[in-house]
Amino acid sequence: MSTPVKLTFAAPRRGKPPRHFADLTVDERKEAMRELGQPSFRAKQLATHYFDHLTVDAADMTDLPADAREEMVEALFPPLMTPIRSLEADKGATQKTLWSLHDGVKVESVLMKYPDRATLCVTSQAGCGMACPFCATGQMGLTRNLSAAEIIEQVRLAARSARDGDLGEGVRLSNVVFMGMGEPLANYKTVMTAVRALVAPEPLGFGLSARHVTVSTVGLVPAIDKLSKEGIPVTLALSLHAPDDELRDELVPINTRWKVDEALDAARRYFDATGRRVSIEYALIRDINDHAHRADLLGEKLAARGTGWVHVNPIPLNPTPGSKWTASDPAVEDEFVRRLRAHGIPTTIRDTRGSDIDGACGQLAIKEDD
Ligand code: SAH
User: Fold this and answer.
1) Do residues 124 and 183 lie in contact, with contact meaning Cβ atoms separated by under 8 Å?
2) Mean pLDDT computed over 98-106
3) Which protein residues touch ligand 1 with a CB less than 6 Å away?
4) Closest Cα to atom 21, ligand 1: which residue?
5) Which of 70, 246, 361, 368 is catalytic?
6) What does the CA dihedral 29, 31, 36, 40 come to, rounded to 10 degrees?
7) Where would a tag sit more exposed on the chain, N or C end, judged by fewer CB atoms within 10 A?
8) Mean pLDDT computed over 123-146
9) Of the listed ranges 5-14, 22-31, 51-60, the one predicted with least confidence
């Protein structure tokens, strides 16, 4: 086996982003109103502007006293992220945006429009400490955790952009997947604050359905168990990529800490606790993990844990810079899917939106010239 890969759990500490409304609890928002000499009910008015009207523009806030609006916006809605560049693919239906954060750190998010809905692939960390060798973000290392407001702002800006027709006709942002940069469960507390804001009904949050929020993880077992007890039945995705420890140790280095069987047991417990069918993510890498015997082993391991609790999403590997790995042959992919189904496991190939703008799964990384 090759030398152990360094995993990073604790994010480097950096200067905090300025205080933002989305980071505050309801009580803290009221307190902020008092500090500004405003009655506490204005906190709810601001929340309606933010989560429902998706605006932080004082000019839009006509129900607030004109002389105080600017001051409130300045105090509570400091700009947290500035768009640097947007790239489009799939005839405009996929949009990748590069953002600069308050400290100059850059992150990306990807907005995808479908006929009846839009999905945002959201970033939870700048870089990632999980070091998966086939993932461009994993190769960058971890720069820092995002704050809850930095995550929530990605959602607000995407929801506004979808509503205002930036992707063609106006559409509601209905789905958020934590499949952008970073390992969401390594930034657990913050991600949970963001998740609560996603699912809370307006005006406390965006009012998304929990089932339309997906948290994807390399398999941090204790954090999966914690998530199952939050009482927010988000969809869990487990990035497995190999059914055997020998290969998974290489492809998903966290496997040296929590093995395949432990990760699958935790996924099954998540289903038991929430009733949500778990997604298993499996990037098909030519001649590395796409063998028929691996499809069978995966099918056996999943079926051994029961029926109806899981489905598999194979993804043809998206190319990343400097990697010699490539996607499986379509015929091999078909056979992999066929074998899983033969074990009674529902399996659907994941479409790879945005691969021509490096906006697909595993391709988010900030290039030197950005
Ligand atoms: N760290 C979390 C969140 C990232 S989600 C996780 O790993 O689950 C991004 C998804 O894309 C994960 O399933 C990841 O394994 C997968 N992925 C990474 N690199 C990829 C690549 N080059 N091609 C296809 N999928 C990839």
Assistant:
1) yes
2) 95
3) 128, 130, 134-135, 179, 183, 216-218, 239, 281, 283, 315, 317-318, 320, 361-362
4) 362
5) 361
6) 70
7) N
8) 96
9) 5-14
- The pLDDT tens digits of the residues spanning 228-276 come to 999 999 999 999 999 999 999 999 999 999 999 999 999 999 999 999 9
CA of 139 to the centre of ligand 1 (A): 12
In testing the pocket of ligand 1, which one of 107, 123, 130, 135 has its CB within 8 Å of the most ligand atoms? 135
Distance from C-alpha of 203 to C-alpha of 193, rounded to nearest angstrom? 15
Active site residue 202: no
What is the structure's pLDDT at 2? 54
Q: Is 234 exposed, middle or buried (0-12, 13-18, 19+ CB in 10 A)?
A: buried
At 1, the pLDDT band (50, 70, 90 cuts) reads very low
Q: What is the pTM of this model?
A: 0.95
- 108 catalytic? Reply is yes
